[in-house]
């Protein structure tokens, strides 16, 4: 037994010195280490009291018992003093539950210590040891019950089973000291040895389970009610019935009758506290429900009177809810939208845009997905809508995708207008130099092999300054508008006509040949040669055109060469206003071309 208790002390020290152990658990297991040493020392003295003697030495045996009692008290104090971090009414409820359970153990101790007639036994020493043992055992049991009911302990659940069994077995031993005779010594020693062995097992289990619980603590939420107090009530009633049946109302019976009365009183107080807590809880619940109802009404009012549309759709895109703003936004009653696909409700120009929106938001974006859609009103008009979709499929209270939509038609029209003004000539409506370069870059990335050859036509009106000087700038502006319209008529829809400024125009022909570009240039010259009447004046729009043909990768060089060809056409009286530079067979880089003599 001494060896087992020394092993118990060593195992407790191992747990206390394990690095991840929490401070409160480390303090508890250090105390158990001291307890194990006291048990081992006490039993060693017990061996010494009997060694080589016919009868044990009374002083040494008393010291042995004292050490064991101190060890038990120290273990009980470690459990009693363990901090639970419970405050207010919760602490009071815990105390009542523990007191109810302890009454059952006190009743058991009274039954063991007290004789039926109330007369103490002749062996006063044995009575004193039994009373002291029971008191110390009750202290240890009190600490264990407190930790059990509170749900917070400095050991793991597996350790609690072995530790509780060891404490309970040791306590029962002291409860029955008076009832044991001389022939029960071996039973007493075997029980004590089993208790010591269970304590050692508990320490080893704690060390092993700390791989899963590094802190060594058990912390679980305490339930609203505890079962141990009700078990204690049943146990006290059963003990009372057994006592009355066997002995009647003896001195011991009266004591066992008073304890169940105390248990009933404690239970009544506990139930009254529970009733008070329930009343307070119901009152708080009523206040919370009232506040929730106010919040719901406020939210419903905000949604129903908001100008923005709120939709709730499922993972398949079916509308589950539509706010009243749908009627004003698209002319669709909200009730008719429920159960229909989102694309059918919004009726966008591009149905795939709605599918892409739902696919992107279902992919798991935390910040939401924002898109602009061109939708149709029931009256036939088109509306630009900005949709913000947020994934709430995993939210049990929503279970869908929330889509907030607002009408951005005016902003989109203004944006398109500003973009048009930034990329088009305000007089003729033709693209300007910026848009021409943008289309050339897009063509460079998107063109296939059949459209990689392009032609750049640089056009300049002849004697345009004379028109402005002699007939006014207003006539000159109208002439530029006429020229722009005639240029549009001479090219294909895929070609681009741009105005660079003044009387300079550029035509970009896509997927053409040198012969095709020449034919288009002659058609333009022929079309412009027809006179036009402006404010009673017959005006001729004669022009000179420079043409450069080559690959789309040479666009900047082609633009430069077309400008050079235009000036050559102006200076060449026999060129009929047209000069062509062909780069489809061979192309000289601009740096080498600049070094050639003009």
Quick recap of the structure?
This protein has 598 residues and is an alpha+beta fold. The chain has helices spanning 2-16, 23-50, 58-80, 88-113, 124-150, 157-175, 185-209, 227-246, 251-304, 325-330, 334-337, 342-346, 351-362, 409-423, 433-446, 464-471, 473-490, 514-528, 555-571, 590-595; strands spanning 152-153, 218-219, 309-313, 319-322, 369-376, 382-392, 400-407, 453-461, 496-501, 504-510, 532-534, 537-539, 543-551, 578-582.
User: Describe the biggest sheet?
Assistant: 5 strands, antiparallel
End-to-end separation in angstroms reads 118 Å
Tally the helices.
Answer: 20
Mean pLDDT: 80
What is the spatial order of strands in the main beta sheet?
4-3-7-6-5
Helix/sheet category: alpha+beta
Assess the beta-strand content as a share of residues: 5-15%
Helix content: 55-70%
Radius of gyration: 50 Å
The number of strands is: 14
Globally, the shape reads elongated
Low-confidence stretches: 587-598
The number of domains:
3
Walk me through the structure:
The protein has 598 residues and is of the alpha+beta class. The protein has 3 domains: 2-226, no CATH class; 306-415, PAS domain (Beta-Lactamase, 2-Layer Sandwich); 424-595, Alpha-Beta Plaits (2-Layer Sandwich). It is 60% helix and 14% strand. The protein has 20 helices and 14 strands. It has helices at residues 2-16, 23-50, 58-80, 88-113, 124-150, 157-175, 185-209, 227-246, 251-304, 325-330, 334-337, 342-346, 351-362, 409-423, 433-446, 464-471, 473-490, 514-528, 555-571, 590-595; strands spanning 152-153, 218-219, 309-313, 319-322, 369-376, 382-392, 400-407, 453-461, 496-501, 504-510, 532-534, 537-539, 543-551, 578-582. The strands form 4 sheets. A 5-stranded antiparallel β-sheet has the order 4-3-7-6-5, sandwiched between helices. Strand 11 and strand 12 form a beta hairpin. Helix 2 (23-50) runs antiparallel to helix 3 (58-80), helix 5 (124-150) runs antiparallel to helix 6 (157-175) and helix 6 packs antiparallel against helix 7 (185-209). The longest helix is centred in the middle third of the chain and has 54 residues, at 251-304. It is elongated and about 150 Å long. The protein starts with a helix and ends with a helix. The model is unreliable at 587-598 (pLDDT under 50).
């Amino acid at each position: 037994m001494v060896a087992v208790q020394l092993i118990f002390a060593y195992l407790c020290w191992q747990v206390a010195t394990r690095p991840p152990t929490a401070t409160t658990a480390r303090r508890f297991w250090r105390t158990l280490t001291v307890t194990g040493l006291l048990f081992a020392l006490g039993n060693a003295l017990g061996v010494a009291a009997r060694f080589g003697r016919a009868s044990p030495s009374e002083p040494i045996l008393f010291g042995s018992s004292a050490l064991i009692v101190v060890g038990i008290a120290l273990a009980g104090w470690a459990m009693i003093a363990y901090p639970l971090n419970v405050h207010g009414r919760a602490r009071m409820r815990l105390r009542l539950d523990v007191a109810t359970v302890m009454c059952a153990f006190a009743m058991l101790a009274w039954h063991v210590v007290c004789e039926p007639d109330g007369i103490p036994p002749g062996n006063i020493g044995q009575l004193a040891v039994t009373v002291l043992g029971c008191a110390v055992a009750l202290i240890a049991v009190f600490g264990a019950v407190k930790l059990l009911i509170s749900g917070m302990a400095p050991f793991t659940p597996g350790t609690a089973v072995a530790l509780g069994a060891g404490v309970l077995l040791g306590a029962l031993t002291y409860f029955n000291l008076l009832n044991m005779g001389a022939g029960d010594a071996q039973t007493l020693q075997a029980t004590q040895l089993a208790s010591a062995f269970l304590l050692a097992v508990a320490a080893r289990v704690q060390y092993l389970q700390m791989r899963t619980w590094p802190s060594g603590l058990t912390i679980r939420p305490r339930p609203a009610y505890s079962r141990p107090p009700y078990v204690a009530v049943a146990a006290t009633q059963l003990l009372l019935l057994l006592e009355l049946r066997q002995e009647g109302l003896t001195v011991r019976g009266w004591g066992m009758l008073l304890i169940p009365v105390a248990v009933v009183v404690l239970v009544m107080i506990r139930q009254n506290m529970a009733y008070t807590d329930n009343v307070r809880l119901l009152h708080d619940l009523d206040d919370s429900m009232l506040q929730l109802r106010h919040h719901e009404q406020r939210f419903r009012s905000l949604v129903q009177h908001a100008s923005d549309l709120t939709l709730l759709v499922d993972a398949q895109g079916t509308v589950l809810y539509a706010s009243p703003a749908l009627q004003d936004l698209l002319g669709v009653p909200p009730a008719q939208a429920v159960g229909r696909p989102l694309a059918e409700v919004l009726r966008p120009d591009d149905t795939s845009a709605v599918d892409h929106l739902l696919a992107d938001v279902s992919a798991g974006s935390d910040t939401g997905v924002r898109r602009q859609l061109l939708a149709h009103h029931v009256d036939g008009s088109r509306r630009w809508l900005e949709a913000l979709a947020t994934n709430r499929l995993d939210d049990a209270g929503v279970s869908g995708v929330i889509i907030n939509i607002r009408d951005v038609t005016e902003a989109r029209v203004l944006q398109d207008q500003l973009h048009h003004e930034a990329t088009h000539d305000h007089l003729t409506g033709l693209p300007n130099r910026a848009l021409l370069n943008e289309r050339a870059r897009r063509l460079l990335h998107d063109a296939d092999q059949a459209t990689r050859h392009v032609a750049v036509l640089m056009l300049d009106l002849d004697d345009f300054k004379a028109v402005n000087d002699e007939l006014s700038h207003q006539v000159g502006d109208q002439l530029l508008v006429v020229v722009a319209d005639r240029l549009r008529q001479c090219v294909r829809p895929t070609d681009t006509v741009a105005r660079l400024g003044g009387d300079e125009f550029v035509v970009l022909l896509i997927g053409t040949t040198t012969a095709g570009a020449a034919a288009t240039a002659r058609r333009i010259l022929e079309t412009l040669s027809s006179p036009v009447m402006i404010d009673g004046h017959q005006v001729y729009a004669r022009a000179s055109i420079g043409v450069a043909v080559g690959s789309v990768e040479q666009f900047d060089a082609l633009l430069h060469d077309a400008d050079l060809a235009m000036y050559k056409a102006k200076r060449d009286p026999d060129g009929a206003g047209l000069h062509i530079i062909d780069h489809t067979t061979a192309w000289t880089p601009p740096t080498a071309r600049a070094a050639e003599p003009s």
